[in-house]
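Slide 14.
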Amino acid sequence: MASSPLGITSWGPDHTKAGTAFNVQPDGSASLWIRANRSLEGYEAAVDFNGTLLQGNISGNLVTAGIPADLYATPGKYTVQLLARKGNDSVKSNGVIFTVQ
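Slide 15: predicted structure.
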């Protein structure tokens, strides 16, 4: 059974300076949060950060993911998408831009 299209409604932060960690976690790593247009409870989630798949942690319609330092070491505009899977139901969100200055 197909579900409604998956969309990103907000995310943060949406930029950083090259090599500067953002939303710093207790271990010093960077983290990104993404709010979806629907709950992803019961799904497995991943964050596609410019072609690199990262483990997503789900809480309702909020997904968080740790972002390795090498992914924000170089200035540029990087596409971020959510991927979610539950059984045979696999969905991919719209893309948003994360800017590294």
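Speaker note: The radius of gyration is 13 Å.
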